[in-house]
Specification:
Layout: H1 11-18, E1 22-26, H2 27-40, E2 48-53, H3 60-68, E3 72-75, H4 78-86, E4 94-97, H5 103-112, E5 115-118, H6 123-131, E6 137-142, H7 166-178, E7 183-188, H8 197-218, E8 222-226, H9 244-260, E9 268-271, H10 275-278, E10 282-293, E11 297-301, H11 310-314, E12 320-322, E13 332-337, E14 346-353, E15 361-365, E16 385-389, E17 395-399, H12 404-407
Helix pairs in contact: 2-9, 5-6, 7-8, 8-9
The structure holds pyridoxal-5'-phosphate.
Amino acid sequence: MTEKKLPDVNLLSLAKKVGTPFNIYDGKAIAENAKALYDAFSWVDGGFTDFFAVKALPNINILRLLASLGFGADCSSLPELILAKQAGIEPEKIVFTSNDTPDEEFKAAYDMGAILNLDDISHIDAVIRSCGRLPKTLCFRYNPGPERTGNAIIGNPVEAKYGLTKVQLVEAYKRAKSLGVETFGLHTMVASNELDPTYIVETARMIFSLVDLLYKEAGVRISFVDLGGGVGIPYRKSDDAISFSFLGSEIRKLYESMIVEKGYGPVKVTFEMGRAITGPFGYLVSTVRHVCRKYKDYVGLDACMADLMRPALYGAYHHITVLGKEDMAEDHVYDVTGSLCENNDKFAIDRSLPEIEEGDVLVIHDTGAHGHSMGFNYNAKLRHAEYLIGLDGRISRIRRNETFEDYVRTMLYDPEEVM
Ligand SMILES: *Cc1c(COP(=O)(O)O)cnc(C)c1O
């Protein structure tokens, strides 16, 4: 069970003051959560870093906050690399975990000094072609294929486009070593929104056993392991959050028996968690425009799928609180919708809520990761502002509302003839 909390600010007066919809992130809660994570892995003799997955919440102010809390960045495109750099994250704390990567992005990441994490054995040649040589530090992404079952969201590893097979992995490290690479990392990511901590612990076991295999079969010592992202969050009240201290202590046992006792230490342990870092600490605040009674009862919001795509995209559950009605009985059933001309544009279907009236302000929970960043402009819907509650409790705007001018910025009112 997880209690659905609201941030410690007056969201109703904020909504009145700045207008809705908007996303707001609780910086203080993010910092406390970060501390819990870093404390849970403070035992790692080789060091610990979470490379925050930038795609989860790509706002420079969030990245700056995370950088101050010890996070690095996991980037998969050039714009994400630039953002991470602008946020002041040191290059050694930026991992470029991309796939189907353009040569110029390998080059940019190399020039910046970021850690290249290669998704395919053929990318060794792509890096040489684009950068002239391999970097001193190199990481490869492992795909366990049939040796591991995926979870429901990420799917079966055999069907996943990512990573090298075990046979390729051995060959890739041998080749990288012969081409002058000195420091090696090993990455995998086989979970998405996983709430079973043993699944993550088993991923650590799988990776630590590869440290042994790669030493024996490829003659390389792994300096850091990257266990990827995919740690889930309790979107539903009935879900339990993964405890970082449980993860830390279980992974520690494996580290001691599989790394330290075998003489492979110290190895740095890293993750690329995004969702588990900021997800629960973001809220989409939106006002009810209309309550309509048809074959079903509909609550129409001023936010839409452009502000939060997860429910429409994967039927994801997001908890909803009606501000000021927290103590009322949830004795009405509604579909909570946006205004897109697209019937998928619903935040909730058949949701029990207190009786709702026009003008009510709703909070959609857990929008701090893969929320605003997944937004889009279909139906010329403009994306909305973001606010941050700072460590001092003050609220700042960290992204303004999009305007019509933003929307048409790339459109050429005067066509340019090209051929
Ligand atoms: C999306 C992604 C992450 C972050 O996933 P979360 O579910 O936000 O933890 C980390 N690494 C890679 C390679 C990803 O694609």
